[in-house]
Amino acid sequence: MTYEPAARDLERRSAALSDVWPGEALERVERCPLCGARDGDVLYRGLTDKVCFCAPGSWTLYRCSRCKGAYLDPRPTVATIGRAYAKYHTHEETAEPPPPRGLLGRWRRAARNSYLNARYKFDLRPTLSPGGWAIGLLPSLRCRNDRAARLPLPRRGARLLDVGCGNGAFVEDALAWGWNAEGLDPDPDVAAAVSPRLGAHIRTGTLADMRYPDASFAAVTMDHTIEHLHDPVSTLREVRRILQPGGSVWIATPNVDSLGHRMFKSDWRGLEPPRHLVLFTGETLHAVLTAAGFDKARQLRAPFVSRWWFTRSYRIARGEDPLAEQGASLSFQTKLLAFLADWRGFVAPSCGEELIFVARRPAQAGP
């Protein structure tokens, strides 16, 4: 199934931008940033910013012939990539829905607490043990809660760093769960926006800027961050250095081998040029983690979110704003395909819209 643009909004938005990214603000990518191979095939030409409508220029995405990852060439430099984030969607604080009320709401909250306590070693109250067992038996609810919690708490007060923390929502949750959590984001507007809630728990900069001491953290999380990096392998090596021996890294990123990408092609929501500089398959991400010195890398099941990805991709194909609250809806047939894609991803996580991996710094001491 293919989709053709049905609206001209995208063209009007793009026309308002400068036609090209300044040449001096670009860099060539001679080798795959993920495996170092020189050979790559053009996957798409003429990609534009169809998500935030703030980055000028058109972009070429290559597929590495060795590792099957994908990368932009040319791409913005480290010094100029910031202009692509002028209207980035994580700048704004997300309005969380109010907690459920009434007897049903209290039951749901207690059931969720029981599940998270048992699986992630939290100490949340109130609890309802039968409800926790029920969540464990329901794949959709289980995957959603696993995605939210990310990693087990090794001990109360263990230190966690969320790299690319955006609006700080996960940091806030992790603090409530017992982590000594902090967030890091390169955008100074992020810290200003969340400071009333989180204060000193959010810092501005990159991992290279911070120069954390060795073995500073029990856990590092990167939620849709790694695809934005110019040098993912070097960043992961830095993550390994700041992790304590036996500490864990948790990563989520779009899956270039997903059914949604195969359906929507250049309109797939996960491409997002030029902010997404690299894209992964499950095998690619596993290999990158291994190359960075991690062991016991394993892929987790992603939540059932194919309908979200399909809807945003469909709106991009129609020339609509994929981040708007209202927009075109999927046909019944496409909704059914999204439902089937969720279950296919549950059985074979390498096919899901999102890749989620956990890996560990080897327990023995060493660089």
Describe the protein in words.
- 34% of the residues lie in helices and 19% in strands.
- Helix 2 packs across helix 3.
- It is α/β, with parallel strands linked by helices and 367 residues long.
- The strands form 3 sheets. A 7-stranded mixed sheet has the order 8-7-6-9-10-13-12, sandwiched between helices. Strands 2-3-4-11 form a 4-stranded antiparallel sheet, with no helix packed on it. The protein has a two-stranded antiparallel ribbon with strand order 1-5.
- It contains 12 helices and 13 strands.
- It is globular and about 55 Å long.
- The N terminus is likely disordered.
- The chain has 2 domains: 83 residues, no CATH class; 206 residues, Rossmann fold (3-Layer(aba) Sandwich).
List key phrases describing it.
13 strands, 12 helices, 2 domains, globular, Rossmann fold, alpha/beta, four-stranded antiparallel β-sheet, 34% helix, 367 residues, seven-stranded mixed β-sheet
Please give the CATH class of the largest domain. Alpha Beta
Tell me the overall shape.
globular
Q: Provide the domain count.
A: 2
Q: What are the segments in which pLDDT stays under 50 over at least 5 consecutive residues? A: 1-18, 91-96
Mean pLDDT: 90
